[in-house]
From TrEMBL, chains A, B:
The lineage of its organism: Eukaryota, Metazoa, Chordata, Craniata, Vertebrata. It comes from the Eukaryota. This is Nucleoside diphosphate-linked moiety X motif 6. One of its GO terms (cellular component) is nucleus. Residues 139-271 form the Nudix hydrolase domain.
Length: 309, 309
């Protein structure tokens, strides 16, 4: 799984460069390569980054919309001769879906899919020495569950999934939407499944799973948050849920009608209810992002006032 | 960002079904559709799941390798007439890279890329009512840093990145390889960058960032772990690091030559060193996965013995 030490030494460097360049080649061009020629052949115009990677965006390359696989394959072949002669280490191809036939032509030269979204695919070919050191694409989906605990009566909001054979009590939750923060997902999913409004209090637990059947074989990061109820009336989603109740927390820690992780988090919540939530919480704080100046959310144990910045 | 309540009610249900089916249609077939016909036209063979989604794998469909975009477009068009007549809610197309021209043909019928990996792309088209309720693909990359703290002398292992303009002290780290656990990434990256062997102790902090320039515009989950050193001799990677030192933890909490998150975690570590690491740690335990019987790693605050299962 892990690359050799030697190869991996370059990884963050290559990641740092190509990652930033791949999504927006035009903005990140260091120099625009010309239609140079090798033995008089045309070469695809691309942008070159300082690490020797070439990015060709077929939406900007002026190719005829009806270019054939054969014609593009020959143009790409001539271009590869040029790029190899120039010592380029990698080539990225951004292919609009309407020109997908060019991806087939590229595959005959060794290109493979790096990723694809909506209306385009990105292919890559490593030209450097040894194993490819190109960065990968997103590997994880993020699922978030919300444990809504009413501290006034020690009851927690749980559901039973309509689509599971074993109807075990669990906390409502679901997948984060792209760009959605963990706490926002928890509050949204709890409301959508149960009709209960709540507010984020802390992060309680994280689980990582690989080869996840619910993630197209990718990995899954499952986060459980502690929430406080803002409303109590249950109006649960009958398509998703068979049952939805405010269950006594102590009962949830004892019942066998639940999942191992729900039972574990229930005991964690009980501990927090009895000894103080500072015992179990990861609190959230906002810190400035170094490169963008924006703020991001950081979760960790509460620091004593003397150690806060 | 969040879908409407009504639409999202179906999300986990559709996710639960199509996610499991998309990666391996043959294994998940409920029934194999025949080459039925509408007005005598041929229809692509696909597998149908119990939620009314059709998955067509072009590597299994017996299409001629040289089928033209036009011919595939007509076949797909006739198939869509049939599937709509049958009330199917969605169509998934698994397209090998060699038949990528079929993706262009599919796009003329409204299909878009769902994802692509290595030698194939998966396209999708929502046929049901309203906005698409198809599940998304992986949204996050996971980066892990390792804070290696020598409790005997209060020194922590830090590096300065060769490729940053501001040479700030930070903890060594990098991206998780696919299928790699958080702790394993931390130990591997620390060794690759510094030459120091270490072992995982706990999870300290999590940060989520969106539209990450280092993640092809996707999201980034950055995890910082606490590690204990097994060796102390530094042999750092000169391609990645400008400097690498065992720095006094108290000094790291005071210096301005660091990043906000490193400074914050340094203060967290100092608190742990002085008051006990149980104050700052999320410990890791293994629990059985409900559906697979495999074990996964769960991170949360340590439970008192009386509450452990």
């Amino acid at each position: 799984m892990a690359p050799s030490v030697f190869l991996s030494h370059l990884l963050p460097l290559v990641r740092g460069s190509l990652c930033r360049k791949a999504p927006c080649p035009s903005r990140t061009a260091v120099r625009r390569s010309q239609f140079l020629s090798v033995e008089g052949n045309r070469v695809l115009a691309g942008t070159v980054d300082r690490f020797g990677g070439v990015t060709v965006d077929l939406t900007e390359s002026g190719l005829p919309e009806d270019i054939s696989e054969g014609a593009f394959g020959r143009l790409l072949g001539d271009s590869l001769v040029q790029w190899r002669a120039e010592g380029k280490v990698a080539v990225w191809l951004r292919v609009p879906i309407s020109l997908s036939r060019c991806a087939a032509a590229a595959s005959t030269h060794g290109f493979t899919f790096h990723h694809a979204k909506h209306d385009h695919a990105v292919l890559a070919l490593w030209l450097g020495e040894g194993e490819s050191r190109l960065p990968g694409f997103a590997t994880h989906q993020v699922g978030v569950a919300g444990a809504v605990l009413d501290e006034s009566n020690g009851k927690v909001l749980v559901v039973q999934d309509r689509n599971k054979t074993k109807n075990a009590w669990k906390f409502p939750g679901g997948l984060s939407d792209p760009g959605e923060n963990i706490g926002a997902t928890a509050v949204r999913e709890v409301f959508e499944e149960t009709g209960v409004r709540s507010e984020f209090r802390s992060l309680l637990s994280i689980r990582q799973q690989h080869c996840h059947p619910g993630a197209f074989g990718m990995s899954d990061m499952y986060v459980i948050c502690r929430l406080s109820p803002l409303t109590h009336a249950i109006n649960f989603c009958t398509r998703e849920c068979l049952r939805c109740e405010w269950l006594d927390l102590a009962e949830l820690t004892r019942t066998s009608d639940t999942t191992p992780i729900t039972s574990r988090v229930a005991r964690l919540l009980l501990h927090g209810l009895e000894q103080g939530f500072s015992e179990i919480d990861l609190s959230m704080e906002e810190l400035p992002a170094v490169y963008s100046g924006r703020f991001y959310q950081l979760y960790h144990r509460q620091l004593p006032p003397t150690l806060k910045s």
